[in-house]
Amino acid sequence: MAGQGRIARTAAFTAAVLCALLTGLAATLARAQDDHSYYGPRLIEEKVRIPAPGGYTIAAGNALTISSGGVTTGNAITTSTGTTTISAPLAFSGTAPTITVSGGTLTVSGRPVRLSSPDQAAALGVGYIPRERRVEGLVLSLPIVPNITLASLATVMKTGAIQTKREREVAESWVKKLHVRTPSVDALCLNLSGGNQQKVVLAKWMNAQSKILIFDHPTRGLDVGAKEEVYDLMRTLSEQGIAIVLTADTLEETIGLSHSIIVMRDGEVTARFDAPPGNKPKQIDLIGHMV
Question: Which of 136, 138, 133 is nearest to 189 (CA)?
Fold first, then answer.
C-alpha cells in the first residue's frame, strides 16, 4: 500500500484511458461510424449567398449536400461566426436579423424552398439542436413533458385540446429510450444536467420525426461521459437514415463523427474530404486548408 504522498502506480495515460477511468465508459469517438457507410437519397442541397460578419460573404457556389444516413460537418472554419452562418439558414432562415439569405437556392428532398420560419422548417422535417440549449432549445421553466412535445403538439391533441395522458406517455417513452436521468418527467428542465437537457432537446425533434437534424456544437459544456452519450445517439440516428449536419467543437469530433467534411476560410470552401470508416483524414490535412 502506498503511503501518503507516494505514487503507487504509473501508466501511460491517453485521453481514452482517462475517459474510461473517469466515467467507466470506453472513449468511442475514434471509431465513429465503424460499421456504417451507407448513404441514402440526397435530402439537402444548400447553395446560398449569405452576408456574414467580418465583411465576407459565403458564396452561392459553396454547395452543402447532405444525404440520408450521412454526417456532414461544415465547421472546419477559421471564424467562429461562420459555423452559425452555414447552419442557421437550414432551420431558421429569416428569423434572425443577422442571418439573411440574399441569393442562391436551398433544396430539401428535391424541392426548392425559401424558409421563413422555424415552423416551416419543422414541417419539412428539419430539426435544430442549438449550441445554446438553455436559451434556444428548451423552455427551462417548464417540465420535461411539454418540452418534448413542443415541436409536435398535433400528435397529442384531439379536438383542439392537449391529451395530457397521451402527452405524458410520449414523454415517458422518450425519457426511457434516451436514458434521461431524472426523478420524474414532471421535473423542470432547469434542474437537469447539461447532458440530460441535450437529450430532451433531441427527444423533441425525434418525436417530431425529423429526417434532417442540425447539431450546432452539441457537446459544448458537457462532461466527458455526457459527450460519449451524445456521440452514441448521433451514430444511432445516422444508422437509422437520419441526415445530420454537424458543427463540432474540435477537429477530433469533426473527423471522428463525420462521413464528409467541408473546410472553409473567409466564406469560401477551401477543401472537401470524404471521411469513411477506416480512412479518416488527419487533423493536419484539415489545418492545411484552414490557414
Answer: 138
